[in-house]
């Protein structure tokens, strides 16, 4: 007769022990019944937070991926709301409203100085430094009403975000075709005056995280001179304390956005553009260096 396996052991266990062991036993049995996919999910759920806390680079990639993914998702909500009005600069308010909370998600404190410099009723051209796609947060914090950014054409093809930008009247330029870009900006000068629109330009023309300002391209200044409207410089302080693409660093932190006094262009012609661009860049560089030398949270007053 074949020997029974563990008969005595089971027989010898008190009913209490059996009761106590059964949840554990059922958990073990349950675990063994998990499919490969379920196992992978469990491993991911355990590994993800560990890796996230342990690896600075992993955290950086996750935060950037979520940033882009979240914007693409928010755009899905924004599109039908914007579509009601059609392509309209007023839709920029919808995008602004949608994006304002992101600074809280990322623990980025934004301090704004110089609000009074935006107290101009007429159209104007805002020029600001461009460190990263995170500039969107500072931009949305202070975006004046009826103000649209000039963006590279590639952004128009960025899925839902591209469509939302188009609906909000973002002006797209083809950086590979100077003549096309110039004619779009010349058209923008007319639209600004006819439709009371403000335009936001990143005169560096590309993202720059070098800790200084690149030489300025002159399109924004030609635009302001053509429309005879003021240029209002905006400087966002360096992100280096909380964000660095090279080091794959992305923590929480503070950014100061300074709106500088407007520079008038009445009476200027295209011959004055190089001098105007240099003067504005000088003002911005000075403000940027000053802000960079301040310790976070210890800046001078005038905070709004
Ligand atoms: C919920 C969903 C939300 C989604 C997110 C929403 C937010 C989206 C936010 C998006 C944010 C996205 C942010 C972004 O995407 S940033 C990237 C795109 N933006 C820019 O590039 C803007 C800055 N660029 C310029 O201003 C350039 O000058 C342009 C592009 C115009 C030409 O550049 P290019 O490199 O091809 O040529 P050049 O600069 O050597 O110029 C050549 C000559 O032409 C002269 N010239 C120039 N312009 C004019 C003019 N208007 N009238 C007459 N002349 C003009 C100029 O003085 C020069 O002559 P000279 O001086 O040498 O004699
Ligand atoms: C179905 C297609 C899916 C495409 C997915 C694309 C992923 C992008 C997702 C979301 C877009 C986020 C919007 C961020 C807006 C910030 C724009 C920006 O910072 O552009 C950089 C531009 O100023 C200068 O470009 P370069 O530095 O010259 O390069």
From TrEMBL:
InterPro entries: AGP_acyltrans, Plipid/glycerol_acylTrfase. One of its GO terms (cellular component) is membrane. SUPFAM superfamilies: Glycerol-3-phosphate (1)-acyltransferase (SSF69593). Pathway: Phospholipid metabolism; CDP-diacylglycerol biosynthesis; CDP-diacylglycerol from sn-glycerol 3-phosphate: step 2/3. It comes from the Eukaryota. GO terms for molecular function: 1-acylglycerol-3-phosphate O-acyltransferase activity. Keywords: Acyltransferase, Lipid biosynthesis, Lipid metabolism, Membrane, Phospholipid biosynthesis, Phospholipid metabolism, Transferase, Transmembrane, Transmembrane helix. The keyword Transmembrane helix applies. It catalyses: (11Z)-octadecenoyl-CoA + 1-(9Z-octadecenoyl)-sn-glycero-3-phosphate = 1-(9Z)-octadecenoyl-2-(11Z)-octadecenoyl-sn-glycero-3-phosphate + CoA; 1-(9Z,12Z,15Z)-octadecatrienoyl-sn-glycero-3-phosphate + (9Z)-octadecenoyl-CoA = 1-(9Z,12Z,15Z)-octadecatrienoyl-2-(9Z)-octadecenoyl-sn-glycero-3-phosphate + CoA; 1-(9Z-octadecenoyl)-sn-glycero-3-phosphate + tetradecanoyl-CoA = 1-(9Z)-octadecenoyl-2-tetradecanoyl-sn-glycero-3-phosphate + CoA; 1-(9Z-octadecenoyl)-sn-glycero-3-phosphate + (9Z,12Z)-octadecadienoyl-CoA = 1-(9Z)-octadecenoyl-2-(9Z,12Z)-octadecadienoyl-sn-glycero-3-phosphate + CoA. The chain crosses the membrane at residues 21-52, 64-84, 155-173. Converts 1-acyl-sn-glycerol-3-phosphate (lysophosphatidic acid or LPA) into 1,2-diacyl-sn-glycerol-3-phosphate (phosphatidic acid or PA) by incorporating an acyl moiety at the sn-2 position of the glycerol backbone. The HXXXXD motif is essential for acyltransferase activity and may constitute the binding site for the phosphate moiety of the glycerol-3-phosphate. Belongs to the 1-acyl-sn-glycerol-3-phosphate acyltransferase family. This is 1-acyl-sn-glycerol-3-phosphate acyltransferase. It comes from Xenopus tropicalis.
